[in-house]
Write a structure and sequence with these properties.
Elements: E1 2-7, E2 11-17, E3 23-30, H1 36-54, E4 59-64, E5 67-68, E6 75-76, H2 88-96, E7 100-104, H3 105-116, E8 124-130, E9 134-140, E10 143-144, H4 165-169, H5 183-186, H6 188-199, H7 205-213, H8 217-241, E11 245-249, H9 258-269, E12 278-281, H10 288-294
Parallel strand pairs: 1-4, 4-7, 8-11, 11-12
Antiparallel strand pairs: 1-2, 2-3, 5-6, 8-9, 9-10
């Protein structure tokens, strides 16, 4: 058995997979908010509880909204700030009496989709998570390429390519301290904020899409700008990596128009691709992170599914 755990700010979810990727059991508990030590204990108890129910022992992989530093061995860049500065993988290895693998949640997302999700059969796959933030990860032959510093795929903190006059002269400030990051233009909160500045109304992303479908001029104009910025941003990936497929995840992946609007625009902006890059919706949705965490223990093996 393989156990995948998604460690979030509000909940810890565990998924048990059988040898062929079948789901055996899924369970979740609230994430302790009082201390780091109690987070470690909650994960330990969750694993032991599931093993008792299933009558077997499994490998453990964990997806976190951050990374383990290659230099210090401590968690960094984590939205769940109580993890920062702690050797999470080592502490969990000691608590569970087995090696535990910890990886960034965006990397787990792309691994899941490349191993047995929407990108099965594609060689080079870039996974995009676009929601509250903008992140990503890279797989080749269903194996992660995390990079020398564990930050491969963090395209959301690169500048928006080919900025227009307004974008260049008045870029938004990003939480990372820089200005004009892709995340400040292409995330869900960015879309909401830019629409509010244009229209004077504050709507959610689904409401903006619905307003555009109903013919509202401001919503249509804002989505047009959003598609253009997203395509420019993806074209940078295509020109550098030239992936066989880009898989979209996160809340913004539910905008159905993206899959028609983005490919021709990306092809126009990228460096002479011969045909549009495949841009596809995830198969596993919110489960991709926890599934990818389980598949951290399959990276040495042949991909689960063969090309169709």
């Amino acid at each position: 058995m393989r156990f995948g755990i998604d460690l979030g700010g509000t909940k810890i979810e565990i998924l048990a997979l059988g040898d062929r990727g079948e789901e055996l059991l899924r369970q979740r508990v609230a994430t302790p908010r009082d201390s780091y030590d109690n987070v470690v204990l909650a994960i330990r108890d969750l694993v032991y509880d599931v093993e008792t129910k299933l009558g077997g022992r499994g490998s453990v992989g964990i997806a976190i909204p951050g990374a383990i530093s290659r230099v210090t061995g401590l968690a960094k860049n984590a939205n769940s700030t109580r993890l920062i500065g702690h050797p999470l993988d080592k502490d969990l290895t000691q608590a569970l009496h087995r090696e535990v693998r910890v990886e960034n949640d965006a990397n787990c997302f792309v691994l899941s989709e490349a191993a047995d999700g929407a990108a099965v059969g594609h060689n080079v796959v870039f996974g995009v998570i676009a929601g509250t933030g903008v992140g990503g990860g890279l797989c080749v032959n269903a194996r992660l390429l995390p990079g020398a510093h564990g930050i491969a795929g963090e395209w959301g903190h690169t500048p928006l390519p080919a900025p227009r006059a307004k974008e260049f002269s008045d870029p938004p400030r990003c939480y990372c301290g820089r200005y004009g990051c892709i995340e400040t233009w292409c995330s869900g909160p960015a879309l909401v904020s830019h629409y509010e500045a244009r229209s004077g109304k504050r709507l959610s992303v689904p409401e903006i899409v619905a307003a555009a479908d109903a013919g509202e001029a401001a919503a249509k104009a804002e989505l047009e700008d959003f598609y253009d910025r997203f395509a420019r941003s993806l074209s940078l990936l295509v020109s550098i990596i030239d992936p066989d497929a880009i898989v979209l995840g996160g809340g913004l992946s539910n905008i159905d128009a993206l899959y028609a609007e983005l490919p021709p625009r990306v092809e126009r902006y990228a460096f002479t691709p011969e045909g549009p890059t495949a841009i596809i919706k995830n198969r596993h949705g919110d489960s991709s992170g926890v599934r990818g965490a389980a598949w951290l223990w399959r990276e040495e093996e042949v991909p689960l599914a063969l090309p169709k």
